[in-house]
Design goal:
Strand content: 5-15%
Distance between the termini: 67 Å
Number of helices: 4
Helix content: 55-70%
Largest sheet: 3 strands, antiparallel
Number of domains: 2
Number of strands: 3
Structural class: alpha+beta
Radius of gyration: 25 Å
Strand order of the largest sheet: 1-3-2
Order of helices and strands: HEHHEEH
Oligomer: single chain
CATH superfamily of the largest domain: Winged helix-like DNA-binding domain superfamily/Winged helix DNA-binding domain
CATH topology of the largest domain: Arc Repressor Mutant, subunit A
CATH architecture of the largest domain: Orthogonal Bundle
Length: about 100
């Protein structure tokens, strides 16, 4: 649903069409997304239109980016440690060979 809304506003019915769930379930999902601030809905006549709110998505993206940086730094350090251990192991093996 969120991905679909990145292309522009859509009615709840339009959001439900490609999904293998009931319209009631889609409405519940939209309500949760609206409660989280990710989606904004508006009644236009008899149709409930949904649109994405970019600010919460930007905040989530920043949070993910921050976590990714931390994990990349840890994995880089692990790679360095494993490389050092491999070099030490190769050196020890070479010194043991007569």
């Amino acid at each position: 649903m969120v991905e679909r809304l990145t292309f522009g506003p859509a009615s709840v019915s339009e959001l439900a069409k490609p999904l293998a769930m009931s319209l009631a379930a889609v409405v519940q999902h939209v309500q949760v997304l609206e409660a989280c601030g990710v989606v904004k809905t508006e009644k236009v006549g008899r149709t409930r239109m949904c649109r994405i709110e970019p600010a919460p998505m930007s905040a989530a993206e920043q949070w993910i980016t921050d976590r990714r940086r931390g994990w990349e730094a840890r994995l880089d350090r692990l790679g360095d440690i494993l490389t050092e251990a491999d070099i030490l192991n190769q050196t020890a093996t070479t010194e043991e060979t007569p």
